[in-house]
User: Fold these one by one.
Assistant:
Number 1:
Amino acid sequence: MIEKALLDILVCPKCKTTVKPEGDQLVCQNAACGLCYPIRNGIPIMLIDEARKPGEPPHFDAGGVNHSV
Ligand SMILES: [Zn+2]
């Protein structure tokens, strides 16, 4: 579980909007952005390269390699 104090300082690195935990990921609350950041071993990975957009299949589970874009 992520501490609320940590959540308070976590923002989407892309749009600077706050994120909200949903399952095993953090979801950007900006509807126009909506990137989902994975949480690995309790540590949120706040990297745009590691994030995915809603509706896209997860591609960050394969060793963190992201060939999209
Ligand atoms: Zn965002």
Note: The two ends are 31 Å apart (CA to CA).
Number 2:
Amino acid sequence: MSNTHSISAEHVVLIGGGSTNALTAVRLAERGFRVTVLEKAKIGNGSSSRSAAGIRAQFSIEETVIGMQYSEWWYAHFHQHLRTPPEMSQSVIQQNGYLFLYEDPEQAAPVWKHGVRREMAQTWQVARANVAMQQLIGLPVEILEPQEIHYRWPHIEPDRLAGATWCPSDGFLFPQMIYMEGFRRAQELGRRFAARNGSDRSDPARRPHHHS
Ligand SMILES: Cc1cc2nc3c(=O)[nH]c(=O)nc-3n(C[C@H](O)[C@H](O)[C@H](O)COP(=O)(O)OP(=O)(O)OC[C@H]3O[C@@H](n4cnc5c(N)ncnc54)[C@H](O)[C@@H]3O)c2cc1C
């Protein structure tokens, strides 16, 4: 705690009003930093409003899988973390799953294209090995055979497929909710710090400012 007090007088200026700084502002404000956010246009002006905002934990490096698993969990509990008023708690994440399809090398490339077939077989093998690694660290990911894929999604023809990997906790985010709610919470934390500490010197300094 004494650490928190010793850093609380620091003033951090964040440049840019997108998702990154919305959440950074919250974390800094939670730790007692003075936060100023400078935005050259308007909140959400950059990539945050242009993103496909896909989020997934199906990766090939263990640390990334763990990090993204945490990230999906964090966004699934976003409104609890940010203490969003119930009337403003719209969805921030849609976990509708990610399905990666892999082609059957023998169907997808002619017999004389050995290199292509070998590469495709290898890709499918690596995908299966990744699933084994991901399952070991608790990701609810599965390997699906072609018939199972067709059964679950009848519009997908199974003939050319070697299989698929499917993780139902992957999905996409609603970035506008991230930055709007993030900055709302950062401002709220500023007000709360001011009320709690109450001194003239710290009040204005502890309130995160947004300039647009
Ligand atoms: C087409 C597209 C698809 C994407 N798809 C995905 C996806 O599926 N999954 C995923 O995780 N990510 C995706 N991304 C990436 C993701 O959108 C970005 O990583 C994220 O939005 C970055 O957020 P940010 O807050 O760091 O930056 P930004 O949202 O770009 O915010 C930067 C802000 O800084 C402001 N600014 C810039 N210069 C200055 C200055 N000198 N002074 C003051 N303000 C300044 C800008 O106006 C802007 O508002 C995608 C991005 C794009 C463009």
Note: The longest strand covers residues 161-167.
